[in-house]
Amino acid sequence: MNKIGFATIYFKEMARTFRVPGQTLISPVMTTALYFVVFGSAIGSQVDFNLEVSYAQFIVPGLIMMSLITNSMSAASSGIYFPRFIGTIYEIFSAPISYTEITLGYTLAATTRALIIGALIYITALFFTPIPVEHPFIALFFAFLTAFSFSLFGFITGIWADSFEKLSLFPVIILTPLSFLGGVFYSLDMLPPFWQTLSLANPVVYMIEGLRWSFFGIAMINPLISALLISIFLMICFGLLSYIFRTGYKIKN
Amino acid sequence: MTKLKKVLQYTTMNNIITIQNLTKAYDNGFVALKDINFTITRGEIFALLGQNGAGKTTLISIICGLVRPSTGTVTVNDDDIIKDYRKTRSYIGLVPQEITLDPFLTVTQTVAYARGFYGRPRDEKLIEEVLTDLSLWDKKDNKIQELSGGMKRRVLIAKALMNEPEILFLDEPTAGVDVELRKGMWDMVTKLKNRGTTIILTTHYIEEAQEMADRIGVIADGEIKIIEEKDALMNRLGTKKIILTLTKNCDTLPPELVDFSGLSLSDDGHNLIYSYKKSEHTGITTLLTAIKGSSITFTDIQTEESSLEDIFVSLTQKHE
Predict the structure, then answer these.
(1) ipTM score assigned to the predicted complex
(2) What is the pTM of this model?
(3) A-contacting residues of B 19-58, CB under 8 Å?
(4) Would you tell me which CATH number, out of the four given (1.10.287, 3.30.70, 1.10.260, 3.30.1450), belongs to the domain B239-318?
């Protein structure tokens, strides 16, 4: 194994994160903090919320998960797309480094970035309301599994995209609506039965519900089902990457 | 061990790259390489010449692992580029044709990362040595975007040298650089060769190949047209000319000279031109004796020798 090669990709990507902290760290934290202030504190205090936790507390796991999903995906997709766009990708593909090491280097760096942002959002939320975490290790498990899965998905879109427009297609057209409709700001039982059923087709629901359960021990969906479905998504991403590397799709042809 | 076996073993050891039956057809159906077979000898400077789209970059890209071959095999130091890619790639340094650098990194970061990708720990001494050799040491903390085009090209070379390669691929290394920098690069290439590095060079500048190469390969339409020692090639295909400036213009050759093949008059009848292959019996003495016995006299005599460029043009034009 080329450990130094893997570490070089990982630390190069992390250095990219810290080179522009305003864009990579502060901006997503600010945005999410504003959501929290507006929805959690201002509007949330007026919401008659029939759960064991306050509305402000309720939305925190969803906000963290939404941030993990969008940031892990954008970090990994831009991580691989940018060197493809400027042509420096040749230095990776001509080096004695395997596809697995390349993928892990990029995706683990994107996962780390997303987890740092998630932690910052949690810390920021603590300034407004106490947020107990009932199952901290399971919370970390859900956070890591989701961030890693979407890093892989982002990595795939970064290979597939051949323009900046295509690069932003998935986050803007698909991911943002799925996140907003994934139960970040509401509990599924607040929806009419039809919309409740339809929501179950949204994969983001399971991720948010999984994290929410590990925070408060309450969820509409069994956390084991959530973990299982995220794992299936992870496997699909691995399968797609395996196809890309086996065929050289968009990278060696 | 028989003498033949020893010779064969030596030949194999001496071949650092072996390419056999290599073809590449892209997904869009374009066949970039057609049944390529040749070897690169350890320690030589090999110049691969060809026009745009001839297949030079595709060939280099396959050897370096950037493009997948359709069929055929390539071995580097007897290791297969697919099965033993970690080994083969660790032998190679690549200077690409395009200036492709991350504009936001410094020169030192750029070369240090390049070494890291090869699994080599950071080596400050090597970084200083290479950057100094390439006159980049005083720019080590500058961002790439602050450098001139020539400096960026030198950074590309520095990156390629970071894994201390046995084989260096230079894909059009002096395209668009000024004369001074080009000469500087030639000196650097010579220095690397003297250290034992095998150098494979693709270039549009035939002068560059003529100046540096030990062997020349010409590729056209994805096929290798010729591979030969540079000196032998120039002797075999090169021509020389003797040009006599006549005292009086002539319309036709005098009877004493009509039987000389390769002899002709210029269009204006002012010059008598004798062309001959460098490798052949020249017949100059016989010609001069015949001229002395003829009616013509001359005021001046010049000689011209064809360059590698002339040979290249004649070889590639034949196949167009």
Answers:
(1) 0.85
(2) 0.82
(3) 26-27
(4) 3.30.70
